Input
Amino acid sequence: MVTVYNTSKEIAEADPPIAILPVGSLEQHGEHLPVATDWLRADDLGQRLAEALGNCYLLPAIAYANSQEHMDMAGTITLRPSTLALVIEDIVLSLRHHGIRRIVIFTTHGGNWVLKPTIRDLNFRYPDLRIIHADGPLLTERESMPREMHAGKGETAAILAIRPELVKGRSPDHAAPFGREWLDYAGMGAVTETGTWGEPSKADPEGYADSMDAMVERRVAYIRETFARLDEMLGPIEED
Amino acid sequence: MVTVYNTSKEIAEADPPIAILPVGSLEQHGEHLPVATDWLRADDLGQRLAEALGNCYLLPAIAYANSQEHMDMAGTITLRPSTLALVIEDIVLSLRHHGIRRIVIFTTHGGNWVLKPTIRDLNFRYPDLRIIHADGPLLTERESMPREMHAGKGETAAILAIRPELVKGRSPDHAAPFGREWLDYAGMGAVTETGTWGEPSKADPEGYADSMDAMVERRVAYIRETFARLDEMLGPIEED
Amino acid sequence: MVTVYNTSKEIAEADPPIAILPVGSLEQHGEHLPVATDWLRADDLGQRLAEALGNCYLLPAIAYANSQEHMDMAGTITLRPSTLALVIEDIVLSLRHHGIRRIVIFTTHGGNWVLKPTIRDLNFRYPDLRIIHADGPLLTERESMPREMHAGKGETAAILAIRPELVKGRSPDHAAPFGREWLDYAGMGAVTETGTWGEPSKADPEGYADSMDAMVERRVAYIRETFARLDEMLGPIEED
Amino acid sequence: MVTVYNTSKEIAEADPPIAILPVGSLEQHGEHLPVATDWLRADDLGQRLAEALGNCYLLPAIAYANSQEHMDMAGTITLRPSTLALVIEDIVLSLRHHGIRRIVIFTTHGGNWVLKPTIRDLNFRYPDLRIIHADGPLLTERESMPREMHAGKGETAAILAIRPELVKGRSPDHAAPFGREWLDYAGMGAVTETGTWGEPSKADPEGYADSMDAMVERRVAYIRETFARLDEMLGPIEED
Amino acid sequence: MVTVYNTSKEIAEADPPIAILPVGSLEQHGEHLPVATDWLRADDLGQRLAEALGNCYLLPAIAYANSQEHMDMAGTITLRPSTLALVIEDIVLSLRHHGIRRIVIFTTHGGNWVLKPTIRDLNFRYPDLRIIHADGPLLTERESMPREMHAGKGETAAILAIRPELVKGRSPDHAAPFGREWLDYAGMGAVTETGTWGEPSKADPEGYADSMDAMVERRVAYIRETFARLDEMLGPIEED
Amino acid sequence: MVTVYNTSKEIAEADPPIAILPVGSLEQHGEHLPVATDWLRADDLGQRLAEALGNCYLLPAIAYANSQEHMDMAGTITLRPSTLALVIEDIVLSLRHHGIRRIVIFTTHGGNWVLKPTIRDLNFRYPDLRIIHADGPLLTERESMPREMHAGKGETAAILAIRPELVKGRSPDHAAPFGREWLDYAGMGAVTETGTWGEPSKADPEGYADSMDAMVERRVAYIRETFARLDEMLGPIEED
Output
């Protein structure tokens, strides 16, 4: 394992095939924890992972990330999500320039939502890169894998109900033995045979209307409640 | 409820206080469902929601969204995530120009990851907007709310273990009666008193090292397995 | 002809060599027509064109386009022109990814000005693409072709008048049997021999000053009238 | 009239209420004219216009503009259209900073397509600016004004044919006494009363199908001919 | 002084009027120093400055910056300059959101060229911010201030030689008692009375041609030598 | 030498291996010089350089550049630095399209800071380009070359003081016989053997603390003085 505390020569000699990029944040953490909490945790976890992984290039945790939800409170610093995406891209392309094409990214701040589309976008645009998250279900843990992911019983029922003439038979039921994050790594064509992940054979178009009624009732309640509660919390909207 | 099938005058007269923006996608859906599946479902659900909500402006479902994971298969069309974020922003600003400041966004395509950071970013940059997702736990469903969200027992234990001198007592335990998505709507300052959501009082720094060992062991297994399996699936990396 | 109402497999089997991308808009259409007018017309025309063309991939009409000139009136939704250009680029690159390199774009909304530079830009940057508009004069309709396009009698007269020492003889007169839009498809080098399209031999430098006087008189009248009328319509300028 | 050949103090004292921004290009102009042709002509015309207009700030003609269609031939230099749009925006905002809010833009290079959407976008986003093109029909020349522009007989016939239930009576016929460019300056709400410009009363839905048949036949011929001719000119498509 | 190792509450209570943003880099540093050298030095200097300054918010040194010149050597990570500019802007706007409007930026990596235009751009666009570099001549050190900065003897001689009719007398000689960096902080209008910084009275148009001859001779030698040496070092240019 | 006053054919026949791109500005120049001063000087110098260089393509000086520091005074026009960077990139890529890969850029306006990172960025991203500044020390002028540039005695002393365990011996002292600008042209790997430019052997870690004390004392004085003087000049900060 090498880090930025090594010399360039040491890193060149180690010739690490993998890089680890921890992503932290600088955001308020209650009245008792430092603003640096996620950044410290990202470095700590990165260090532990790298030691266990063996030969890799452990990068320093990114301190400046995307924490707009904490900006009410002093000390929080946030990038816009689009800026964080560019930072990730530039770091990944630097690693690629040095011939490191396997990259592990993780974050200790759950609100860095933009990492997922960024990782998928980079894997798609640079097919010579293999960028993965650091966590997910193991391939042997089939019970943790989603059974219904795409074009399965729910979606088939929906189109049978909405536009039945568009449904052409049923793709075979398929249980892809992967976690959802594999779609970001390898794409649907690599993890399924027909593009279906789920059980079209069990589609129940009759039940669709009922399940939609229940969903709509619930969502309308949620929307009404949410706007009402936001008005209570934030007061009436002040226009510019 | 008004839609783009109404005239401008009808929309002006209805003066809808809320808009609904469904987001679909155009992506392969197995061998039996149309590429338009998510787009059709988004329009169907939007229609149902709008009818139930009453006076609102239902926009047509966005067809062109972010589906890079399905690009292996014919017919899929994808925007880059950054382009989709700009499309959402422009639509939201058009609604704001017309005085509609409450906006409900939902997607039938789970891979439109970029919606979450975009909604949060727009709520933060335009404080006169209230943009929400269409779904989440109701405020009365306390059992579905996350108990540990931020600065609670896990993070407190971590900093106690890593840099104990940085921990200043304990913020009071706090169970915020909200779903996580409220951070994207209102921010942490509005949904907690001290910025803590969880139970710092239960932090166990002694257990931290053990829990980290377990986590690292698992993640290393995951990383090794994932790269190995990707190589099997995709073959060796071909450099440019 | 295949559409997004087909399955991915059907599209793959049809292997369409051409795609059609209709571009609509969502903008007020008087007191009697729906906001969706251009979008509906784009889909209708797309359908008719695709049926007549034979094997092609007909995409759904883009609903969200560039209509800032209608934003005074309720219901209109506009993208910025730069966002629409990115949407077009991403869709075109998705088609290219699938091996479809002949793309026909048309719009039912005249104000989507940004399509022209975008199509030219993409044709220039991706020489393996052939992107065209859906309409223009047929090659047999020589009478509809512009006679003076570039470096012809008007421009030659101008430079003879302004900086005569820079004029090196006369390129041969040339009537390129193309509509102007061919410059966006193939470029000047492909549609002319010398880069001249017009009649340099007829350049009249003596007449230049007179024609400029007339033009200037007219333009000054136009500018004065326009600012005066805008002030009448919009009132005095209110500074921030 | 002041120019960049004046001192700052002279410009401040003149306090010009209007600026003129000529836009040229650097592109091949046949075998006999210089690459600078459009740039020279833009400066020449700008000079003439400014002298005739009186107190104004004449800027130097932009040399670097958007000429991708001439890039086959030596000497041509092009910006991407998106870069040219940013240049225009920055110059306009500099003038606004100095309190000059009436801006006349013109180009001697017809291919600078991006000027139109840029001018409209800036007029929309900065309501305290009045940016106009330098040319168009005078308001007294009613015969040059378009009679059918928006929501008139053609569009009404189309929706009556496609989705008749969406048509709500007829907006009054309206002949807006403006050129089309006024939509970029002032918007539809300012130049019409109902958003209609044309004659809905003359809509002929029965004729729609026939006119569409003719249009489709013609367009299909155009598309086929164009792709065939492009293949002849450019050879088969070479994929990357 | 507070840092990200403080809690949000401590930072709020300190209410620091100034923030310090150190900018490092991750780049090779010979065979004996770590890649982190500039980052370590930035944190060290930041700490020392903050302690001496008193109440301020010391941010962690930016690790990921702009080091393209070291990318030949392993371990170097670089952002593009445009990405670094966005990172700086987002951090500055976060501080502004918290009411901290005095910001000191410094870098230990000389190649972060983009900081200067970024600081000036932000000071210009946000007049309520005061962003400065951490170093420069003290105002009492008149001897270190540049005597000729703008519109002084050299530039006056040049225009007298090139276009003498454009020169309107002489602005009074002026020695602005500031370092050049003040132009980035306050602008020319604030640091001079007439916009002149130098000695127009000493302009020598006769000497202009001679001095230009010398300069041109030297520059041509430099250009020839540089291209020749680059070819020697890098070999012939390989086209794509 | 050819210019834009030549025809395309003349430029093609000259087949110039080098292009010269002068960059001026439009900014106030005291009460006696024109706003165009830097632009005129850039064209004048470009002309002289090109004549002396021989076969090259001299481009017209860029008029619109980055002069935010002069925006207090009438007539100044500025691009944002990021826009100027895009303009440079587009011009460079146009030259590259025509096969001209040796490009000399210079500016007569010292505030065009963004040129340096832009030139370096383009040289890095397009290895088939050789873009240089027009001036610097000649390779024979060793006395003008910086002795300490990177990883030399100062930086070595710093890391010996801060984190001595990270220092791995000493790279050999090295005096690279280049000016600093060579890092933007060729990169550190090409101009040094070990990445060191300076004298690590002379590092004095004991002196580090003293030199830092002096530096900090001075910088704190500078920061305090600068903010105080800015407040005097600009008045108290007015928040939005």
Summary: The CA atoms of residues 93 and 115 of chain D lie 15 Å apart. The two ends of chain D are 54 Å apart (CA to CA). The first helix of chain D runs from residue 8 to 14. Chain D has a mean pLDDT of 96.
